[in-house]
Design goal:
The chain has helices at 25-36, 68-81, 150-153, 170-179, 196-204, 297-327; strands spanning 16-21, 41-45, 85-88, 91-96, 107-111, 116-124, 128-131, 146-147, 162-165, 185-188, 208-210, 214-219, 225-230, 235-237, 240-243, 246-249, 261-264, 268-271, 284-286. Strands 1, 2, 3, 4, 5, 6 and 19 form a seven-stranded mixed beta sheet that branches. It folds into two domains: 16-129 and 246-327, FAD/NAD(P)-binding domain (3-Layer(bba) Sandwich), CATH 3.50.50; 133-243, FAD/NAD(P)-binding domain, CATH 3.50.50.60. It is built from six helices and 19 strands. It has 328 residues and is an alpha/beta fold.
């Protein structure tokens, strides 16, 4: 059994107003809005945030440079300050406990250890997982010398020798963005096609193209990323590699909710949602990277807040309808 890195609350026996699946920025901000509205809310957190390998998060006003773990620790404290609960655990199953047609929505969420919770509404904020190319040595540098986002990591790798490890058409745009940050840029085509226009644009920006396939990442004497080894055994020195990953919404244990998903060619797979995180499944919302694959921390937190406020508003309507019916 995995041990939590922080104190975990008891899972309540009574039905709660909302369960939030996911304890990242989106989930915690959604829970914060609900708890401040005096809603009983429980956050189920597996403790595996996407940005855990990163030393700091960036592009978030005032909090720029804060370690991700510190943000989440402070977020959990704030949710608890208003009566919300944070429960460490993995969701094994989530499904409706009552038919949507009854109007009295209930959902059952079961954890991997067998504990279960019943909630009136569900906010899915599970984030995503990045699928990296199968290049030996690449994954061990992920989030440090292997990066994907120029806005998250760009300033920190400015002026470094950067390599773009192409995975598809989106890598072309990625290369031009990273060229803004360093004049020493090599595009490793790695079996992908480049048309004449793209080659001309790269040449105009002094972006060198290497056609030979990449075989492995090469480490320096202290374990740092030192370059890449090509199929012909040549080694090209690089200190940073940028990779456009495939991004897939984390869906483990959520199959019972039957949330609609969408495949985005060249990007990944996401849960489909509308304004405020509303989904086609009555009583279920989605926020953050689980539905917006490119959202940074600030955008994910804002989306969670909006979803939390919307959930509370619809619960207010449901409570008022029930109170009115009781008077008839």
């Amino acid at each position: 059994m995995t041990t939590s890195a922080y104190a975990t609350d008891e899972l309540p026996a009574e039905t709660v107003d909302a369960v939030v699946i996911g304890g990242g920025a989106a989930g915690l901000n959604g829970a914060l809005m609900l708890a401040r509205s005096r809603r009983s809310v429980v956050v189920i957190d597996s403790g595996a945030p996407r940005n855990a390998p990163a030393a700091a998060m960036h592009g978030f006003l005032v909090l720029d440079g804060m370690p991700p773990a510190e943000l989440l620790e402070r977020g959990r404290e704030q949710v608890r300050q208003y009566g919300g609960r944070i429960v460490f655990g993995a969701v094994a199953a989530a499904r409706p406990a009552t038919p949507a047609a009854t109007g009295d929505l209930r959902f059952t969420v079961t954890l991997a250890d067998g504990r279960a919770l019943t909630a009136r509404r569900v906010l899915v904020a599970t984030g995503l997982r990045d699928v990296l190319p199968e290049v030996p040595g690449l994954a061990e540098h992920w989030g440090r010398a292997v990066v994907h986002c120029p806005y998250c990591h760009g300033w920190e790798v400015r002026d470094e020798p950067i390599g773009i490890l192409a995975t598809g058409p989106n890598s072309v745009h990625q290369a031009l963005l990273f060229r803004q940050l360093s004049a020493d840029l090599i595009y490793f085509a790695n079996g992908t096609d480049l048309d004449a226009d793209t080659r001309a644009r790269f040449a105009a920006r002094d972006i060198r193209i290497v056609e030979e396939a990449v075989r492995a990442v090469v480490n320096g004497p202290n374990g740092e990323l030192a370059g890449v080894r090509l199929a012909d055994d040549a080694v090209v020195d690089r200190r940073v590699l940028a990779v456009a990953t495939q991004m897939h919404s984390r869906a483990d244990g959520l199959e019972g909710l039957e949330l609609p998903v969408e495949d985005l060619p060249g990007i990944g797979r996401r849960f489909v949602s509308a304004m405020a995180g509303v989904t086609e499944v009555p009583g279920v919302w989605v926020a953050g990277n689980a539905t917006d694959l490119t959202a940074q921390v600030g955008a994910a937190a804002a989306a969670g807040a909006l979803a939390g406020a919307h959930i509370n508003a619809l619960l207010v309507t449901a409570d008022t309808d029930a109170a009115l019916a009781a008077t008839v």
